[in-house]
Amino acid sequence: MAVRALKSVLLAANVLFFWLAAWFAFEYRAPLVTFQEPVLFEVERGKGMSAVARRLEQAGLIRRRETFLAAYMLFHHPRGPKAGEYRFASPVRMHALLTALTEGRVHLYPVTVPEGLTGLEIASLLQEKGVVSEEDFLGAFSRPDLVSGRDPLALDLEGYLFPETYHFTKNSEAEEVAARMVGQFEARFGASGRRKAEEMGWTVREVVILASLIEKETSRPEERELVSAVFHNRLKIGMKLDCDPTIIYALKKEGAFDGDLKYRDMRLDSPYNTYLRRGLPPGPICNPGLASLEAALNPASEPFLYFVARKDGRHYFSRSYREHSDAVRRYQK
Questions:
Q1: Rounded to an integer, what distance in angstroms lies between the CA atom of residue 215 and that of residue 279?
Q2: DSSP alpha helices (H): ranges in the chain?
Q3: Cα-Cα-Cα-Cα dihedral of 325, 328, 291, 300, to 10°?
């Protein structure tokens, strides 16, 4: 009789165990909740899974905190939740939540950094996108140690923040963001760019400076190598570059540019004023893209010394001052 009772108890226990196991497996894999739009959920630094589970329950992302914590202890412990912002789309499943939280699959925001922005403008863009504060990024930007191996004369990272579409987490570390951009410059400019610069007798810094001038002078792909040719030709004969964007950059650094370059600005006392000083300016005036870097390394085989903007956005290139003066009268009047 006792044996029969024990067998009944064991059978009931086995049935209950398998029922609970099946229920738990269902809870672990089945959708927890559904909602119309993806939900953003932030895990603060230093928070444990118990505190995170409480907030998930309050946010309506899980039904029962106890079940969630049991699943965590069974399948994901001892890895704790990683700080950051997460994006959960409907339907939400417990195993997906736990996997994302313990593996740090944080939500990444796409940020496109256009060609030709300055470090200050990039800092403003990153703050606008919620990636990093302008102040923090400018602090990282002002430390040139990331490029000192390639450019010992660098005072900051201007010119080396490569224009690209990046994916960053919300509230990223400024140093990591800057390092990503500099790393992308290294990857895209590469050993071939450095070899080409050496063959020309140029430093990487000089190439980047010239590329930044080309970037600001034209956005038209077919003109970049022609603009490069003008600057290369002028440098070879010791002729001033007369590059308007260098003065604009100097004015912006002083907070004195109102959007309109005036004739008196041509007399600005600045090392960046290429109307007064021969040779390249002392540093890059923006962060150039790959096309402008390649144009700086590969100028067109043309004898042009001048160019002037036309009303349709293109430029007219001239070999002599007389031809240039005629073009100015034709296109600027």
A1: 17
A2: 2-29, 49-58, 65-75, 94-103, 119-128, 134-141, 174-200, 204-217, 224-236, 244-253, 290-297, 321-332
A3: -30
For residues 44 and 51, what is the distance between their CA atoms, to the nearest angstrom?
10
The two three-digit tokens of residue 155, written as one number: 């005072």
88 in helix, strand or coil?
A: strand
Instruction: Give the pairing type, strands 306-309 and 315-318.
Output: antiparallel
Q: Which two tokens stand for residue 24?
A: 């738990």
Model confidence at 9, pLDDT cuts 50, 70, 90, reads very low
Q: Which residues pair with residue 309 across a beta bridge?
A: 315
Write b or e for each residue in 232-246: b if 16 or more Cβ atoms lie within 10 A of its Cβ, otherwise e: bbbbeeeeebbbbbb
- Residue pair 218/227 in contact (Cβ under 8 Å)? The answer is yes
Residue 215 clears pLDDT 70, i.e. is over it = yes
Distance CA 103, CA 85 (A): 13
CB-based contact 285:118 (threshold 8 Å): yes
CA-CA distance, 68 to 73, in Å (whole number)?
A: 9
The CA distance from 116 to 118, in Å, is: 7
Residue 242: CA atoms inside 13 Å, Cβ hemisphere, count? 12
DSSP letter for 271, please: T
60-94 per-position pLDDT tens digit:
888 889 989 999 998 999 999 999 999 998 888 88
**Which of 114, 133, 115, 111 lies closest to 123, judged by CA?**
133
The one-letter code for the residue type at 285 is: I
Q: Which amino acid is at 104?
A: G
Class of domain 29-103: alpha beta
Domain spans of the chain, in order of start: 29-103, 119-302, 304-333
Locus of tokens 């090392």 = 271
Structure confidence at residue 63 (pLDDT): 86
